[in-house]
Fold this protein.
Amino acid sequence: MPNKTFFWFFLPTGLAMILFIGLPIISTGIQSFYAQHDQVVKEVKKCDPFGCTVSIVVDQEKTSKIREEKPLGKFNGFGTYVDRNHLAIEEIGKFWNETNSFGEFVDQVTNLPFYKALIFTLTYCLFVTPNVLLLGFIIALSLNAVTRRIRGPLIFGTILPMIVTPLVGSLVLFWMIDAEGIIGANLQMLMDDPYLSLKSSKTLTWITIIIYGIWHHSPFAFVVFYAALQTVPQEPVEAAIIDGASRWQRVRHIVLPHIYPVVTFVALISLMDNFRVFEPIIGFSAEGSAQSLSWLIYDNLVNEEVILFGSAAATSMMTIVGIAILLAPVLIRTWKEFRTAR
Amino acid sequence: MKKILISLLFLLFGTSAYADCNIKSGSINILANDFPALRTFVETAKGCKGSADFKVTHSSEHNKIAVPALTANPSEFSARIAANSSIVPLMNQDLIRPLDDLVKKYGKGIQDSQLITIDGKIMAVAFMANTQHLYYREDVLKELGIAVPKTYEEVVAASEKIRASGKMQYPYAAAYKAGWNLAEEFVNMYIGHGGEFFKAGTAQPSINNAKGVATLNMLKKLAGLSNPDYLTHDSEAIKVEWESGNVALMTLWASRSGTLLDDDGDAKITAATKLTGPATVAGGNIPAATLWWDGFTLAKNRSDADAEATFRALAHAAANKKMVADAADQAVWLIEGFKPGPKSIGVIEAVKMKAKPYPMLPQMGLMHGALGSEIVEFLQGKESAEQALKDVEAAYMSKAKEQGFL
């Protein structure tokens, strides 16, 4: 396609992307450098049905004047980025000096909210992405091998996890693993431990969420792989059969190289999706044991009675950076291949 | 012509039925939490809407919607049903209007004690009170010869006895869901220990002390007697636990007693469900509970005409003796004419025992938020009480700095 044609094709999409993705990201970025103005408070008398007390309120007259002058807030630079609830540079330095062993240091650092969330997010990505690829590929191969007559219903059944809304899917599993749910109660019996709870143990919660993630994302990989399998040329496969290649050898040397670009694509999308893991944490009410970066943003925006825009914006920016870092190897590789192909 | 005449007559007749309000114009849109008493209250207000537009949103997510919706100009809602804690962000952002003029003009029947005044200005009109208190299963306690607990130490002893008897494995329940609910339990218990959240007159936190540690240890003891999934249980979940007969002692909101004692569910459990005041802790006099009021506030960013219409409708409900008589079971109404029934024992006892109201401080929401996430690891046995309290203070300080309180 000539560059000019491509440009005109891409223009509407590009404009929409700038308007709905680019500009909000820039605005979030600007927001992350600002904090609220210093609150001017005053002591007043407050009375309610239970009596009167003297306590403080925000002085609206003075505050609104400051707000009108500088509606964005107080410029804070990277202040929000390095505070304890984000990168916690100062705290980490302190831990380094104060702790006696490396293990203790790691304990202290992973106790900070941002690092706690980062570790869960990375663990989730690391376990879910490869398993999704593998499971999706195996399902696609197996379905490709069954007779055409029953393939339709089977495919429908396989992509169900993707059709089910994430929140609903996780809620169903959440109820099943309840101490009185079908899985939870049976596990207690099986392990002979009446106090066993999938929800209160951190490790078990992580495992549950990861398994849920694999279950939910595999159909996507499957659909793409299944489509790719339809394009595998039959001649080399038949030739390989005649040469006496086993099933595994055929997959390894013919099918996989053929669908390789698609694997990269699915890996990319999966990584991006998994890095933003959020719904299962809400669905499983797992806030206590598992927090992800997206959950931190959500927490800053809604869980406080005060909305922490600066905090949320800073975490958002760092999530974007995190995704970029994660995707870098795959992107660089794709770019190199693109160059050599030309 | 005849049609017009009839509809005109109908209109006249229709409005005269609500002669006490006679609201001719304006639009009313209310945001409220979702529990039976609030539904009754809003329905009563609707009864006198006259020819004004009337809309209502009942949502348990009301806290998340309120500030953004009221910040818009004109704001989405003309009124917000708030409580001690949720009025604070509205005050901080200057989103609600003083009601003095409206109370003077249309507030007939509203008692002085219902008025929430801040710095001499009426900012809200309260209509019901709420608290968290003890519920117990009379049959279970009687069978095992346990007296009704008055302190949390007795609650622990009683729960241990019930567990030892083999009747129930997890005899105690409270809303310990990580986040707002868990933090609320900490606030109650800490106040019961006589603790203060901030250094006097400042926004500096002061919870990392012996009282804080004692509070956490008591919470952990109680958690050990609860269903192991306690970190995922909110008020609704423990209500279900109670109704399935798994629990004999429970700390729950007074406003939930209505649904707990209704005809749904096992009649035997309902009959044996009894209410008592909130428990004290560590030999203290004041209960380990906070008093709450629910009241209405009016949005600032809305036309005066809408505010007037909204106020008249809501004031009609906030001084409505008939509603209070009909729905005496649903809440502890602060409205004149309320005769407390058996379901209001919890709140009445709490007031008698001089329970403290939930602190109405501008920075309290940040403390509440920090508590909800940072004490979880202590309950899971992953860190010490001192470390957890240190984390809470550190998390709070970062947020308070960002918000300009420190």
